[in-house]
Amino acid sequence: MQKIKKNQPLVKAIILIICGGLILSSLAAAIISLTDPPPSDDPRDIYRSQLTQLETVIAQTEKSLADDPENVELLKKLGDSYYTKGQLHASLNEGAESVESFAKALEPYGKVLELEPDNVDVRVDRAVAAYASNNNEVAQEEFEKAITVDPANAKAYFNYGVFLYFGLNEPEEALAQWQKVVELNPEAEQDLVETTKTWIKAVEAELADRAADDKEETTADSPDETETE
Predict the structure, then answer these.
(1) Per-residue buried b or exposed e for 6-27, using 16+ beta carbons within 10 Å of the residue's own CB
(2) Considering its fold, how many domains does the chain have in total?
(3) What's the pTM value of the predicted model, to 2 decimals?
């Protein structure tokens, strides 16, 4: 079957901005607390204010890590901060800065996993950061490790499916991962299950349309059959 072509930079921005809450496994929701938001209704001004605050958080965290380099909470906070920075740059359509920030999240997340190799949440977040920074080999390796460690982790399967579909352009393999989310059907993650069902329907419809188009092209290209005497 012909691969489905996609605008990769646009797709990544959509995934990271719209679906970020579902993709992330462990990222704290409030690394930044805007107690004094900028006097503007423009979201871009808010994003830039948050980026400025993140730079302060990153500098403080790196300083603390210099004195305590194996502090898991600090390492995770640093990775989360770079991850959030990548999301904000993506929201501002700053592709190069976004990729750079996600790439910087890989090292602190990796150090967490050296200390806690069974931390599936961080492993999934590292996989997503790897995909967002064009490190597909690292992303696939981390997703597969996460699922091996915790075969009942619905978010890992969902995220792996997103990566397979958008990152590797493998819709059938993505559907297989998403079906596992539906099969697991975790009671505490029904929103994720319903979202997954929506994605499954959309991709199945896309594949059906593609198959129909391929069939029409094949029929149109076939020579007319004529009877011979």
Answers:
(1) eeeeeebbebbeeebebbbbbb
(2) 1
(3) 0.81
